[in-house]
Sequence to fold (111 residues):
Amino acid sequence: MILNSLQFIKAGRMDQDQRAKFLQFLNEKWKDQTCEVCKNGTWTISGDSVTPVILKSGGMTLGGMAYPQTMVSCLTCGNTKFFNTVITGFYKREEKKKEENKENQEGQNAK
Fold:
């Protein structure tokens, strides 16, 4: 499969086990891994979850509800795909709550 040659961004939050599971998920679900733009098939997975900015009338919304995604980009042309990490099972809502609680505690300790 094409994705077996993926290179990973090591600075991200995804650990080796999560990357392996996400790679397995992609190989099971993504049947034609050829880039539709340049016809190459070498992709990289971002180690961080990303989220699109929510646009509403009057401007952008920062903070609040988010749609976490895992970003996969073609190494040849930069074509980028986003996989919803909640739907794919790689982002658990409980983990987000733990992260928020930890950030809140760190913020209170800094005062």
Summary: Residues 2-110 form one domain. The chain has two helices and six strands. The chain has one domain: 2-110.
